[in-house]
């Protein structure tokens, strides 16, 4: 009985360990990116890029303008690969197929991958840095 009480007390007093984001979370980030684009929430989509959107290589205005002709978009993600860890950095690649329909009715299909990045929890003073963010994209048109 004494051991049971001690175990319960330790469980209540121990801080909950935050689970590190894994490969499925990276995949979910790419899906969230395209969901934001589809609903026209370009601010959220831009914010899913590393460094507050700067990793997209565009200003917010230019990023938003890049979707001006897009009526719809969706993504199919595949199993993440090439996970890499540095001292306090994590990287992973999420293969994708992207399907877009332009406002003029033209359909497009792109294939490639997004590389995502995050910082190990507790390293940065900004807790959001431990979430996956898009770092770079390599997509090519499928004919």
Describe the structure.
With 143 residues, the protein is of the alpha+beta class. The chain has helices at 2-13, 23-38, 42-47, 60-65, and strands at 70-77, 81-85, 89-102, 107-119, 133-141. Strands 1, 2, 3, 4 and 5 form a five-stranded antiparallel β-sheet that branches. Strand 3 and strand 4 (107-119) form a beta hairpin. The longest helix is centred in the first third of the chain and has 16 residues, at 23-38. It is globular and about 45 Å long.
In short:
The chain has 143 residues and is an alpha+beta fold. It has helices at residues 2-13, 23-38, 42-47, 60-65, and strands at residues 70-77, 81-85, 89-102, 107-119, 133-141.
Set down the secondary structure blueprint.
Elements: H1 2-13, H2 23-38, H3 42-47, H4 60-65, E1 70-77, E2 81-85, E3 89-102, E4 107-119, E5 133-141
Radius of gyration based on Cα positions: 19 Å
Name the structural class: alpha+beta
Instruction: Give the rounded overall mean pLDDT.
Output: 88
Q: Low-confidence parts, pLDDT < 50 over ≥5 residues? A: 4-17
Q: Based on CA inertia axes, which overall geometry fits?
A: globular
* Helical proportion, percent range: 25-40%
Q: Largest sheet, described in full? A: 5 strands, antiparallel
Q: Please state roughly what percent of the residues sit in beta strands, choosing from under 5%, 5-15%, 15-25%, 25-35%, 35-45% or over 45%.
A: 25-35%
What's the end-to-end separation, in Å? 69 Å
**Discrete helix count:** 4
Give the beta-strand count: 5
Q: Which H/E pattern describes the elements?
A: HHHHEEEEE
């Amino acid at each position: 009985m004494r051991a049971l009480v001690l175990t319960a007390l330790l469980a209540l007093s121990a801080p909950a360990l935050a689970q590190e984001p894994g490969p499925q979370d990276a995949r979910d980030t790419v899906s969230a990116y395209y969901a934001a684009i589809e609903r026209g929430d370009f601010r959220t989509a831009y914010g899913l890029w590393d460094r507050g959107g700067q990793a997209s290589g565009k200003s917010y205005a230019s990023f938003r303008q890049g979707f001006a002709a897009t009526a719809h978009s969706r993504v199919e993600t595949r199993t993440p690969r090439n996970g890499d860890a540095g001292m306090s950095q994590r990287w992973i690649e999420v293969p994708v197929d992207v399907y877009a329909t332009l406002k003029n009715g033209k359909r497009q299909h792109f294939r490639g991958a997004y590389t995502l990045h995050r910082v190990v929890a507790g390293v940065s003073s900004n807790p959001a840095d431990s979430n996956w963010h898009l770092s770079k994209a390599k997509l090519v048109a499928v004919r």
